[in-house]
Amino acid sequence: MPDKLTLLGTSEISVSDRPRFWSDCLSELCGRLHSDPFGAETIDGRIEYGTIGRLKLCQIEASRHRVALPAEWTGEGKHPVVKVVLQTQGSSIFEQDGQCVKVSPGEGLAYDVSRPHRISSPAFTRHLVVIIPRDLALQHGFKQSAIAGHHFSARGGIGRLASDLVHSAFKEMPAISPDCENELAESILNLLFLPLPQNQTARNDLSPGETMKRQIKDYIRRNLHDPDLCIERIAAAMNCTKRYLHMAFASEGTTIAKYIWRVRLDQCRHELESAQGSGTTITDVAFSWGFNSSSHFSRVFKEKFGVSPSHFLR
């Protein structure tokens, strides 16, 4: 089984260049960020990361340092991600939107990377990080205000379960079959967001129609690989009529069938972008996401994105 983890580290970098190199490493993961030694001579750090579905799982350890997104940088680079940090060693101080939170071992933090923030670590720290594309978080029904600056305990309850799952997934990543990556990513996402109290409030405030719409989307994401996925199957699985499904989905501004194809195409594009040099073919990707005709897939892909699928495999 090939190794799925990428290693970035400062050990081979000159002492004077390490702070800049560390900034570049962090920026590679989630957009342009600045780091400095926080009064120390340099930064010694190491990152191991890999992907499960569209999630990046990273183990990051570093000596005393500070990392920040200055206000003047917002909008310059792309930071389209939400981070969930699970602290395992050392403590860090997180500052964003006027709040200041100390994150200690056994605690977690979820925040929007695109908003100005600063994280200061006065001594060696190690943490596990899940980097989530913001569109994926929002697809799960979480408002932007509900995914920024939430501090939670991972010592017990749902927080502990979420932390254990992320740690196990990271440890076993090289052995995880591609066939189950998306289902595993879905499980990680669902469990990670549960400890966030604002998300729980948001869920409780949903109308029956919004709750049904979310259930429809969840079912679709879990079954995108099935070429026979259709509204009839969804209705049967949810024990309701097709008419009720259409009514619940009406506020989405599209039909359920069009939503299925849109999400499938988005997943195919992501997989093609990640497949350069891997030997994966367009047909492999198309069929793995429920298409049963490569010519039809190529046509609708170009209609949506303006380029052919082969553009991403060059």
UniProtKB/TrEMBL annotation:
UniProt KW ATP-binding keyword: no
Keywords carried by this UniProt record: DNA-binding, Transcription, Transcription regulation
Annotated Pfam families: AraC_binding_2, HTH_18
HTH araC/xylS-type domain span: 214-314
Molecular function (Gene Ontology), one example: sequence-specific DNA binding
InterPro entries reported for this sequence: AraC-bd_2, AraC_XylS_family_regulators, Homeodomain-like_sf, HTH_AraC, Tscrpt_reg_AraC-type_HTH
Domain of life: Bacteria
UniProt-recorded name of the protein: Transcriptional regulator
Source organism (scientific name): Telmatospirillum siberiense
